[in-house]
Amino acid sequence: MQRANLYHDKRAQWAVYLVFFGILAIIPLWMGDPFTMNQYARYGVFGMLALSVSLVWGYGGILSLGQGIAFGMAAYGMGATMQMQYQDPVNDPIPSFMLTNELEALPTVWEPFWNTSVGIILAVSIPVLFFIIFGILMFQARIAGAFVAIMTLAMLGAWYSMAYDMQPFTAGFNGISPPSAFVAFGVEVDPYSNMIYWVSLGVLAVLTLGAKALLQTKFGTIVQAIRDDPERARFLGYNVAYYQIVLFALSGLIAAFAGLVWVMITQFVSPTSLDIFFSITFVIWAAVGGRMSLFGAIFGAMFINAAQSYVGDEFQATWLIILGAVFIVVVRFAPKGLAGLFEYALGFVPYRVRETPQSRTDVPSPSE
Amino acid sequence: MTVILELKNVTKAYDAYKVVDEFNFQVKQGELRCLLGPNGAGKTTTIDLITGRQKSTSGNIIFNGRDITGQREDKIARQGVGRKFQVPAVFRELTVRENLQVAFSRNTDPFANMFRMGRKGGLERLRQVIEIVGLQERLGEVGGNLSHGETQWLEIGMVLTQNPKLLLMDEPTAGMTEQETQKTSEIFNRLKGEHTLVVVEHDMAFVREIADIITLMHLGKTLAEGPMGVVEKDPKVREVYLGSEGITDAA
């Protein structure tokens, strides 16, 4: 009878995930309003971003404020892909913003985006590659804690400036607005439709269940061990930096998918996707929902954004102050966020650890 | 018996100050060696040098026939050197069972471990270790909720799970009650012979319980080495421990 809390029952956890995504999946059946679906698809992206923070910070102990880097890079990749879907190789090969910036030919870096599959692959793999390189630089040098936060933030700032300044390639502050919706396999993903919602939810569900499964492997346990005490893990023979780099890259992969879906929803990408404050809010969502629970973090992201939408106009001006206050209260009084409160509440629910043949026999009882 | 660990003229210097000074040290397979000495003698630094936490200024460290001087910590650990820290280090958010699962580190590749469920690996080892260190009742408890003594045992258990050829124990009884110390010395006496151990310790009663041979360090060098009875009668040792009381009372 140890740590007997339904909260820790793995079967119950999987059941909650499946029910959660099941309910979300049928929402369009009674709320088919296109604008609502577009709005809810955005919440799906916020869920992915909180998921990526939960994985890297909650489970890996790496406080990255730079998840926006992967998000923004992928968003630009997707923006370029969708823009080139609109362009015509013969009659109209150069996006109009490039013409106004006096480019006479399509830049070489834009060429691969003529092909949608190549464009998508680049949009996801380049951010991941960048996270691997950046991770090697940080974690091989055993940088940790606040220094990781500062470095990731500074790197995000650098990418923001770059997107802003390279106007002929990125359309600068104005950003890229692909005129038509994304087309995959001949099917148009209308940003105001049930389909966009299901795409967003589907990507979120696959990423979440994948991350959940990953965390239940030995890799997941080791990653959490490294979070608790990297030195101890190192002396057990684990290459701590290697694990951190892999986890950081995986979190970048999730954030990259978020960027990809985001541009499908908004048909727009600008330096705001690399905005520093935006990236920090991911951390707040995860902290409020519960960074040490994937589900908690996703729920936090959706809850906070839904709250912001529905509190009414009089609160919009002071929303940041409210959010800041909530963050402080959570950090001070409920460090495990809403998920932690839920865990505490479930502690009062009677629950017995299931006696499986394995749990009975794998360890000799004291009387033996 | 073969020599498993050998330090040859190992020096660790901070500027002019030598914490470990041309230190020579040999441990044979299956031996339980105690490393003693007053504060600042260089005991923990020696452990740090062997395990790669600090790099030596000069000299060689040979483990199991291979020169491991200056290698990275995890590489040394994978060759079979386990270490228990002075301040007990366990994974505080993980359960005792998970702590021991992580310690079963036969395969340390992250990608290989993505396809491995923690539960099955090392079940037999887990059973053996739990039988040695106890904690049967605490398997589901998180590391952070253990008492100080339990935390020490868990860390000893983790190092055992790793199944190293050489175990380095830095003050395993620090902060333990008398009963806890008693249980720990029972654990160590069981490990003797099967494992090679180097134990840094201050508690003389404990050392008397477990040690075959002790090495007494002073100012980074060996002051005396031999069975307890011989070392404590050594006049040089008496001098270091302030006059005539000897090491027994000084501790």
Oligomer: heterodimer
Instruction: Quickly give the structural class of chain A.
Output: mainly alpha
Number of strands of chain B: 10
Please mark out the parts of chain B with pLDDT under 50 across 5 or more consecutive residues, or reply none.
none
Fraction of residues in H or I helices of chain B:
25-40%
Please, how many domains of chain B? Answer: 1
Instruction: Characterize the overall form of chain A.
Output: globular
CATH topology of chain B: Rossmann fold
Q: Tell me the CATH topology of chain A.
A: ABC transporter involved in vitamin B12 uptake, BtuC
List the main descriptive attributes of the protein structure presented here:
heterodimer, A: 368 residues, mainly alpha, ABC transporter involved in vitamin B12 uptake, BtuC, two-stranded antiparallel sheet, 67% helix, 2% strand, disordered C terminus, B: 251 residues, alpha/beta, Rossmann fold, 6-stranded mixed sheet, 4-stranded antiparallel sheet, 10 strands, 25% strand, globular
